[in-house]
Design brief:
This protein is an alpha/beta fold and 328 residues long. Helices cover 55% and strands 12% of the residues.
């Protein structure tokens, strides 16, 4: 790499690092701690509903395959929640393209399911207080609009599994607020989870932003480790709590766990430990380590076998006989 290219790369990484630190400076404010305090009170739902416009900027894919830029309690129409169709909540990997997301949406819609896509944001990960707040608001919207008989399945991937971990934290902290959601859950698919230490988290974040540029990816990874060191009192605690919830307080429904061989974002022993913890909790979980694939790319590298696995799982947990798609 020439000096000019290195300078540009360094400038980009430096800019990202500064932005990360700006997130810290902006988030350590009275407003953040007021909202966090509200989460611990019985009035949390009312307080959060007052800030819906600001907190719900995540994109959502409705059952017709269209994106809407934000969703709140007022604009989820009854038409969206069609009767008798199972609901799949898909939480993709960070930075997933519309094209990549479409493949999973098509997969589930071909099976007769409706799909909601929640795309996690980088701030959900870098500043866990924000992620906890956003996951609460997202889950509250789902809870409000679920029908009693509506079956639900969650499919999370990569750092999306971390966001799902935040959802589990909210469910464990406020079980009375999400009784319909918990009661309607039928299955969960955990794919390519980032399991291990902060190092694996840093690798996961850097790889999501710089998939091909190795030097930039390594520099961002080092910046993330510096960020974790600087913000330890405000971030690491929540990371550990999310991981703990994921390991010890999952929803006890039928589950699938997938990882890939030699995944740099997952320590094999930690993945095995996660599976063992769930089995010890008497959860019906099947696991598979895919070969000749990459992190969060199993559908791309093994399309037919992957679809067959999903088909069998849906048929079992949702009790439907979906149309098996010939091609994605």
């Amino acid at each position: 790499m020439g000096v000019t290219h290195f300078s540009v790369a360094f400038k980009n990484i430096f800019t990202i690092t500064i932005n990360i630190l700006c997130i810290v400076a902006e988030s350590i404010s009275s407003r953040t701690f007021i909202i966090m305090n509200s989460l611990a009170t019985s009035k949390s739902v009312r307080i959060l509903s007052m800030t819906t416009e600001k907190l719900t900027k995540s994109k959502l894919w409705n059952s017709y395959g269209e994106y809407t830029n934000k969703i709140n309690k007022r604009n989820i129409s009854n038409n969206y929640w069609q009767k008798h169709k199972p609901l799949v909540i898909y939480i993709p990997f960070l930075g997933a393209s519309k094209s990549a997301i479409s493949k999973y949406v098509d997969l589930y819609q071909n099976y007769g399911c409706r799909v909601i896509v929640h795309r996690p944001k980088i701030t959900d990960f870098l500043w866990p207080v924000t992620g906890l707040k956003n996951s609460y608001e997202f889950l509250a919207n789902i809870e409000k609009n679920l029908q009693q008989e509506e079956k639900v399945l969650v499919h999370s991937m990569s750092i999306g599994c971390y966001f799902y971990g935040l959802i589990l934290m909210n469910i464990n902290a406020h079980p009375q607020h999400f009784q319909t959601f918990v009661g309607n859950m039928r299955g969960q698919i955990i794919e390519s989870p980032v399991v291990g230490s902060l190092k694996e988290m840093a690798i996961g974040l850097a790889s999501s932003i710089y998939k091909e540029q190795i030097v930039r990816r390594n520099m961002l990874q080092m910046s993330c480790m510096l960020y974790f060191a600087l913000t330890k009192p405000f971030t690491v605690k929540y990371y550990n709590e999310a991981i703990h919830s994921f390991h010890t307080k999952p929803l006890k429904v039928a589950s699938i766990m997938y990882t890939t061989e030699n995944d740099p974002m997952a320590i094999p022993a930690e993945f095995d430990k996660l599976v063992e913890n769930w089995k010890r909790a008497r959860i019906d979980v099947s696991d598979k380590v895919w070969t000749e694939s990459e992190h969060a790319r199993i559908l791309k590298t093994h399309p037919r076998e992957y679809q067959e696995h999903i088909h069998k799982f849906l048929n079992r947990v949702l009790e439907i006989n979906p149309k098996f798609p010939s091609k994605l």
